[in-house]
Amino acid sequence: MDWGIVSRHLDTLLDQPPERRQACARELAGGDEALFQALLSMLAGVEEADGFLDSPFAPSAQSEGDAPAGVLPEGRRLGAWEIVRLLGRGGMGEVYLARRADGGFEQEAALKTLGPLEADGVQLFEQERQTIARLEHPGIARLLDGGIDEDGRPFMVVERVSGHPVDAWCEAHETSPQAKIGLILDVCDCVAYAHARLVAHRDIKPANILVDEAGRVRLIDFGVSAALESRESRPLTRGYAAPETVSTGEAGTAADIYALAASLFELLTGEPPAEIGASALSFAAWSAQGAPVRSLEEMSRGRALPGPLRADLSAILGKALHADPAQRYLSVDAFAADLRRALAHEPVRARADTLIYRTGRFLWRNAAASLAVTGLVLALAGGLGASVWQQAQIRAERDSVVREQTRLASVQDYLFFMLRDAAAMEGEGDIRSVIDQAAERMSERLAEDPETGGRVLHALSELYFHVNDYEAAEPLLRRLVAMEELPPDLRASAAYDLAQVSLRRGEPELARTQLDVAQNFWRTDTLQYRRELADSRLVEARLLRDEGRIEDAISLLQTELPEMIALNGPDFRETGVFHNDLGVMLMSAGQLEPAAEQLARAREIWRLNDLGDGPDALNTLNNLAAAEFLLGRPERAAPVFAEAVEVREALYGPSAALAAVLGNYGKSLIALSQFEDAVAVLSRARSMALEFAGAGSLHFAASSSSYMEALIAAGQVEQAVAVFAADEVYVSESEARGSPAQAAFDVGAARVLAETGQLVQASERLGRAETIFASLGPAGARYLAVIASLREQYGLSESAPSVPGAATHEP
Hints:
- The chain is mostly helical.
- It has four domains: 3-44, no CATH class; 72-357, Orthogonal Bundle (Transferase(Phosphotransferase), domain 1), CATH 1.10.510.10; 430-522, Tetratricopeptide repeat domain (Serine Threonine Protein Phosphatase 5, Tetratricopeptide repeat, Alpha Horseshoe); 654-811, Tetratricopeptide repeat domain (Serine Threonine Protein Phosphatase 5, Tetratricopeptide repeat).
- The chain has 34 helices and nine strands.
- The chain has a six-stranded antiparallel beta sheet with strand order 1-2-3-4-6-5, with helices on one face.
């Protein structure tokens, strides 16, 4: 059924008296019974639809003394603002030019009023005003002031923006389709900023997108846009409002994506995407009929677009304007990314990813090069021509995959921080509770749609993994692995992730089993799953290391590293992970020099990818600094440790782990004879370790020992004695007796005792520490060397007398 015909007939019917409408519907249907019944069905909803577009800020009855039609007179004061003149009216109230009148400074602004509010409306208005006040973006008109006047009429004072509506500006400047897309991309940046702060605009349309003479976009009229919690509907602008705003009253991020797409459609074609009549019933009927929209091909301006661009934009707009919010783009960023791909002649996500489509976009992007390749194929033998083409295609495909993986990594990080902020704003629970709720909802839908539900659950399990919540990730992954109705590639991916989770949880047997499941599936098509197999070598190598086969692990990574470079290029993130893990394996095998080389290469890759302040970089920094320190190069280790401290503190704040890195940094400063700096760093490490790890921890004992060493080296012996006395109490009252923590503290205590002439007691402490460290095997060798050095420095006997409370360990 043609919705345009239904819409026009509805408007005609609504102009008739109620008693004439049924007969008129029969005439308009012209014998089409289906059309007649559809019109009757729509008419039946007139009373139900009445008022469905009313504002939640419903004005109270006006008193006789109110200004006509709610217009404020010139010179009227609202707070610090004086009315100059009326600028216009909208669905929510009036907009006035106002000037600041409190004598502070001169300023003009746009003052927006609403009708008088009921008590609950006032509270909601204040909440929303505070919400909008959080927005500080150069493309968003700033909220300057607001309040309730003496008549109970709320008002908001917004920065006055000079410019013209985007559609008028484009017409006046004869803007190209590509430039129009660029303007909408600027708006997308504004909206994405607002969404990240849980604010939806809810009334995006060309009239609310202003462009100044320099071509800069400003988004205005957030009005009383709601935070992303559920709210009642606000007045809607037909043609740009998403259908769910009618049926459910919801107008969140998905509705903003719809409105952005509708605005772009109008810029490209001159008309909005939906033909909707002027009445409220027409809008309701349009929504009830599935919210049909026109395509670019139906519009004369749309058909004038270049063929490939038109096809891509049709797919993008079709997805963004889908009647079902769940079928639209997941975020404004995703919508914008597809628009950028269309402008760059790259394959867009809204279209089926076929070889023919990718090849066509490759030829379009590289028109000149494609002509050269065509000439070469004609001039040379077919085999050579095919080889040249395949190499070009392989490079293009590799670049595309690299961009996609980078995007996915960015999305994962964005989701993590977005969910963290959402949890913080809720004031209850944390990020895990937010993911928990989503996982619970998707688990309920899994039986209805296994593939879609399975992929969403898989994504949620990866979010759990991202926040190190392996306990929550494991049951989701086990469920996915066991579901035979899921696509085999999804089950293989879930098995691989389960292997990673099991490895982190210290369950190597389960990890090995699940890794075998994934790799066996991927080996069924080594070309298609080449990347997955290469990635899985990281987990395989870690399992080999944990099985004591460190040389096999090193050999595996060295063999696979060229494959990773071939797949991703030398500077991609996954290549960096390979360099990092290979460096760690080499360190475990005592091959410190090649380990440092691999870790330094990983560090450089993080910097090239702007990942120098992320978790990957942090792991690399810790390992590289340790390798340089063990190689006897503290001048290289110290700045790397300092960078690791900065990154860890920025990411996670004070913690036991940060205390450990501070301790290592302090030790490298001691080695460089920078004793005053070492004292400051190690003092902080000691306090933090005590707070976050406890007195019985190795973190605290080691930092305390190093702190005492730095104080003595700096000539602050009395302070070292005071620290020893205080920390002796902490350690003795803990459960550190007989542990490496006790031994580490004893080394520092021995240094203080020897420095103050208590040589016998110092020797006793070192004897107890020797006993504990000797029981650790190779792991204790470095500490035993430190003890031997102290004995030599202070002339202490190597035969240590018995120390009360010393533990005896079997070697």
